[in-house]
Amino acid sequence: MSNFIVSARKYRPARFDEVVGQQHVSNTLKNALQNDHLAHSFLFCGPRGVGKTTCARILAKTINCENITKDHEACNSCASCTAFNQNASFNITELDAASNNSVEHIRTLIEQVRFQPQQGKYKVFIIDEVHMLSQAAFNAFLKTLEEPPSYAIFILATTEKHKIIPTILSRCQIFDFRRIQVPAIVKHLQEICKTEKIKGDKDALHIIAQKADGALRDALSIFDRMVSFSGKEITYQGVIENLNVLDYDYFFKIVNAMLTENVSEVLNTFDEILRKGFDPDIFINGLAEHLRNLLVCKDETTLSLLEVSDSLKEQYQEQADNAPASFLLTGLSLANDCDVNYKMARNKRLHVEMTLIKMAYINRAVDLTKQGIPAPTPAAVPTKTANFQAVPDPIIIKEPKASIPVAQPTKAKKESPKPEKKARKLNDSSKLSVPSLHSTPSLSLDQIAADIDKATENEQVEESRLTDENLQEAWMTYVTKVQSPSARNTLKNAALKIENNQVVVTIGTKMARQMILDESGLMPYVREQLCDKRLALVIKIDPKQSTQPEVTPKKKKPATNKEIYQNMVARNPLVDDFRKRFDLQPDNQ
Predict the structure, then answer these.
(1) Could you say which architecture CATH assigns to the domain 464-545?
(2) Which CB contacts under 8 angstroms, 24+ apart, belong to 112-117?
(3) Does domain 248-380 correspond to CATH entry 3.40.190.80?
(4) CA 251 to CA 288: how far, in whole Å?
(5) For 239-273, what is each residue's pLDDT tens digit?
(6) Quick one: DSSP state of residue 124?
(7) Cβ distance 342 to 280 under 8 Å?
(8) What is the pTM of this model?
(9) Which of 171, 210, 408, 516 has the most other CB atoms within 10 Å of its CB?
């Protein structure tokens, strides 16, 4: 059987200085050792593969080292370090809480705490994945964790800090581990390539580091896979093929085609990507990331946010110089909308293609917007080559004809010439309000205020229309259209007059008032006929106006037998004598 050891184990750090990307933790622990301020319990929390368990093992080995170096690192040569390296140290106990999470396992651990170390100063207990402990196990562990013996040190490690109960957190010194940055992973991989005598392309190592998503252990696993795939030479093309990563060149090619409005090249490139087996959503996310990188290159202060190799940085900067910021921002917005609505689209390919077509015409839409001309839809714009200058077609706008609704009453009446004058004024104002097509209209506040005053004057109606005669005529015209006889009769008998821009209606009963209020089309019709939208309705009740005769109350009919009998006696007293002679009693019901 082969003696091959994976890189994650073979190059596992043995000193604090070898830990990648966690200098804030290693420096703090070394200072604690130097000042003899070592806590009795630690909690290491952070994402997977960033060095939590590794730092716990280095700390446990350094604590019991017999010959600590001047920089407070383990000597790796004493009996304690040798026993640790051979996994034969009785002073260090490791517990995997993922599979040993019951109360019995914690009780066994507590029993081991009672015994002093056979060799060295401290007995170290490392509990990995501590968040997997049950609630009862946590409660059993509390007292020992808070007041352990002077020789006992607990190091807890977890990827899910929020699952640990607060009483455990309050008893530990907490260290938060960070995701490892791409440059740090690339540097570590380069050192391994140098040690293993492997030729690794820097662009390929960048792809591996980005694919690892901040976890060094994942990066080393991918690295071993690439070595198995390509041997002693790791190339960029081999990495993107093996990891199914979309090549940067596709995005550069598509953006260049968009900048020249070459839609056919954009769609053909997208089709080539689909034929290679990539999903459209992966492509649109990659395109959004590419546009983001181009936007980052626009400013030298944000250039450090670009996590690519130096050769790719130059290519990004060159394309960013040719891409306007408006194009990049609009393209990012379109890509984001496409990604959000991708799952709901039935024809997903067409959904992405429409987004790409819109991106290809961003520059033309921005230019038309600056000229004050509405941007055409993508379907209406022809494909433009690199040397083609688009000239927008002239746009013709027909002026709307101003019109005033004219009522059609049943009775003939003379048309007043003054409303015609109003219509003519409205036509003139509408002509003045049409802006020029080839220049952006600039109106001052005084001009706007003058236009508002002018419009207000046009809406005002002369007092000669608000007369009692015109009101009576409009009222009676509306009455002829009412279908209900009772409502029609009520409206006919109402007394009308104009007072201070109010229609005062006098009627005789509250029922008549309600009938008038129920006629929702009455006042709009009257306002239209009198050309005054400000008219208000006031209803007054005067009993003298009532045309209905007074109704005399009817006598109440007897309801019981006793009342019927009393009514009979009142009409004929002999009925009571008849009852007494035969000794009869009336029914009380």
Answers:
(1) 2-Layer Sandwich (3.30)
(2) 113/144, 113/148, 113/149, 113/152, 114/149, 116/149, 116/151, 117/64, 117/90, 117/91, 117/151
(3) no
(4) 10
(5) 888 888 888 888 999 999 999 889 999 999 999 99
(6) E
(7) yes
(8) 0.56
(9) 171
